[in-house]
Design goal:
Elements (H helix, E strand, L loop, with lengths): L1 H10 L14 H23 L5 E9 L4 E5 L4 E6 L6 E2 L4 E7 L2 E6 L4 E6 L6 E2 L4 E6 L9 E7 L11 E6 L4 H4 L2 E8 L6 H8 L2 H7 L5 E8 L26 E7 L12
Antiparallel strand pairs: 1-10, 1-14, 2-9, 3-5, 3-8, 4-7, 5-6, 7-9, 10-13, 11-12, 11-14, 12-13
Helix pairs in contact: 4-5
Length: about 270
């Protein structure tokens, strides 16, 4: 009862009705002001600022026309190897000699190129249609290399021609020599099957690796040239590695995507 009487007496005191009402303490007004400023700045940045991102994908250094697997048209025992890995061969050049029931028969390369892998060894027995070598389609070993990245099919459309690409090369220590520079030259129109990848690379194992998570899109990256480096290409470091980089070296590429406004992620 005592508390109730005090409350009623305060309500019946008209002289206190003209006292100013304190809505917030000074500290509260400061917090409110800071919050408004931060929200205004965030809104301004969302409409005027940009955010850049990258898309990483595995790939390989190669020449633009790729490689093919050479298969023997005859069966028998390999009695001679007429070329060494790394050697440049002309179209129709003999590669192996196979002893058959009809005598020694040569196995010739289909198109000219560089012999990258010789599978059949002297003394081994091969069946008709067996894989005996991998030949890279290249006329001049000094022709510039390219990188081919295999991007998940749903992400290929995010990469634009001309976009910068940073390539981490497996045979080059990145912390010491940096990353290889390149730009997107072409983006595949449709995802490639494992068979298509294997046909271009001449390697079914790599084809399986690149298509492990579905059919990817091939992205062709043109490497930036430089006359001041040993490799002949531009690196994120000043000099790059003190040696050349080889074809068929695995890489991981990070393609720079187009900058977007933060608000674009919120709008449909």
């Amino acid at each position: 009862m005592q508390f109730r009487q005090k409350a009623l007496s305060k309500l019946q005191s008209p002289e206190e009705l003209d006292l100013p009402v304190r809505f917030a303490r000074p500290q509260g007004r400061l917090v409110l002001a800071v919050t408004v400023i931060v929200m205004a700045a965030a809104g301004f940045w969302a409409f005027t600022g940009t955010v850049s991102s990258k898309l990483s994908a595995p790939g390989i250094l190669t020449h633009a026309e790729g490689s093919y697997v050479l298969q023997t048209p005859v069966a028998g025992q390999v009695t001679g190897a007429l070329a060494e890995e790394g050697q440049l061969l002309a179209a129709g050049a003999p590669l192996l000699t196979v002893r058959t029931e009809q005598g020694d028969r040569p196995v010739r390369v289909v198109t000219g190129g560089r012999l990258t892998t010789l599978v059949a060894k002297v003394g081994s027995v091969v069946a008709t249609g067996a894989d005996v070598a991998t030949v890279e389609r290249v006329k001049n070993p000094e022709d510039p290399l390219v990188a081919v990245l295999y991007v998940p099919g749903g992400s290929g459309s995010a990469i634009s021609v001309g976009a910068q690409v940073d390539l981490s090369v497996q045979s080059v220590p990145q912390q010491q020599f940096g990353m290889l520079r390149g730009r997107v030259k072409a983006v595949g129109r449709a995802p490639q099957t494992q068979a298509q990848i294997g046909s271009f690379l001449g390697d079914s194992g790599l084809a399986e690796q690149f298509s492990r998570h579905g059919n990817p899109v091939a992205v062709l990256v043109q490497l930036e040239r430089s006359s001041s480096t040993k490799s002949g290409y531009r690196w994120s470091s000043a000099d790059g590695p003190p040696y050349a980089v080889d074809s068929r070296t695995p890489v991981t590429g990070a393609a720079h995507l187009a900058a977007r406004r933060p608000v674009d992620w919120l709008l449909p």
